[in-house]
Write a structure and sequence with these properties.
With 391 residues, this protein is of the alpha+beta class. Helices cover 45% and strands 18% of the residues. The N and C termini lie far apart (57 Å).
Length: 391
């Protein structure tokens, strides 16, 4: 059997500012990115097969809204809540209802949820700063033997007489706490992904289970064989790709990721020719959007330089696309196995679905395992529909 670790050495990728799809690491960070994606996959595979110990954590990714940051401010020592705007250059930090009205009065829905968070999260808070998704705030509904709520795209549900069904109905706020922040000053605060949380329990706050219980996950021999097939293919393509090839592809990483998201939307298979056309069309829009001959000439020259460079590195782009495809397929095998055991029900538009996905916490860096053909496509469709509705 091929021993991947004999030649695939992992180096830490740059600090991540947001969650990335596992397969996208090879686009973002080349060889380092491939190594990180590979080891993320291997750690999950080994956890599911009980093949050796590793410290990687697997948490459920919730589709809540909005995200809320809360806790004891490291400098003022007062309890606060806020949206992600707490991380703005001029932070919007709320210690009172009046602060919330002042900072967020333009968004009534956000105001009501932040006020609920300010009123009830101190009941479970002990110390520190955390981030959570708000799942419900007094809007959970009971119908028959089912309790449900829809914070965003997914409708979550429980049996009414279950532990979480009762908590959802009897609480005033539901949250999924997923990140801890540490630092002695506000500016030095850093996310500690996968850290243990020190939170209490209170009847008014329903805490959704975040760390995924893999003890009852069904990871069949057929699944394992399918996983091994794709991970080996990914490594074969990786071995045949020179480092400078990754560097050349990396120059067009933003375009490549945008194109891949486009294929998720339309269900097409990523390929070099369509990517080349995507970049050509992007620059053609810029040409068509200016009026003067000088500006058109400038944009035309840029288009020719960029598309020529891409065409000259066709072989490298094809190898990255192959790596990306097999890393994604290997991830999908693991994600589908993790989906085999759930403690919370999920639906989209009345149809049973899986969780949004999972977050893999390895070496302090989080990566998302999401079935892009299922959830990302549904989320894109919802976003596109909202944009059309706002026109």
């Amino acid at each position: 059997m091929l021993k991947f670790k004999q030649y695939l050495k992992e180096e830490k990728v740059e600090k991540l500012s947001h969650l990335e799809h596992n397969e996208d690491h090879v686009i973002n960070s080349g060889q380092k990115g491939f190594a990180h994606a590979f080891h993320n996959l291997q750690d999950v595979h080994h956890k599911l097969t009980n093949n050796g110990h590793n410290d990687t954590k697997i948490t459920t990714k919730y589709d809540g809204s909005p995200a809320v940051v809360f806790g004891t401010h490291p400098e003022t020592k007062k309890f606060f809540v806020g949206s992600k705007s707490v991380f703005n250059k001029t932070p919007k930090i709320n210690y009172s209802h009046e602060d919330i009205d002042k900072n967020h009065g333009h968004a009534p829905g956000l105001v009501s949820k932040l006020k609920a968070a300010l009123d009830h999260l101190p009941k479970i808070h002990k110390d520190g700063v955390y981030q959570a998704d708000i799942m419900h705030s007094g809007d959970a509904k009971k119908e028959g033997n089912r309790v449900h709520y829809t914070p965003n795209t997914i409708t979550y549900h429980h049996e009414a007489d279950s532990e979480h069904g009762k908590k959802a109905m009897n609480s005033k706020l539901g949250v999924a706490v997923h990140t801890k922040y540490e630092g002695k000053t506000w500016d030095s605060m850093e996310a500690k992904h996968g850290a243990d949380f020190e939170l209490g329990d209170h009847k008014d706050v329903h805490q959704l289970p975040v760390e995924h219980d893999i003890s009852k996950v069904n990871y069949s021999i057929a699944d394992q064989n399918e996983y091994q097939k794709h991970i080996k293919k990914a490594v074969e393509h990786y071995k045949s790709m020179p480092k400078d090839g990754h560097d050349e592809v990396g120059k067009h990483g933003v375009h490549l990721k945008t194109y891949i998201n486009k294929t998720v939307r339309d269900g097409s298979e990523p390929n070099f020719d369509d990517f080349h056309q995507h970049v050509h069309d992007h620059h053609q829009k810029k040409i068509d959007g200016v009026k003067t001959d000088v500006a058109k000439a400038r944009h035309s020259e840029t288009r020719e330089n960029v598309t020529s460079h891409i065409k000259g590195n066709k072989e490298h782009f094809n190898k990255v696309l192959d790596m990306h495809k097999h890393l994604q397929s290997a991830k999908n095998v693991l994600t589908n196995a993790l989906n085999s055991h759930q403690t919370v029900g999920h639906e989209i538009a009345g149809q049973k679905t899986n969780p949004e996905g999972y977050v893999i916490h390895r070496q302090g860096m989080p990566t998302k395992f999401v079935d892009r053909a299922e959830f990302s496509a549904a989320n894109f469709a919802r976003g596109d529909a909202l944009k059309k509705g706002n026109k």
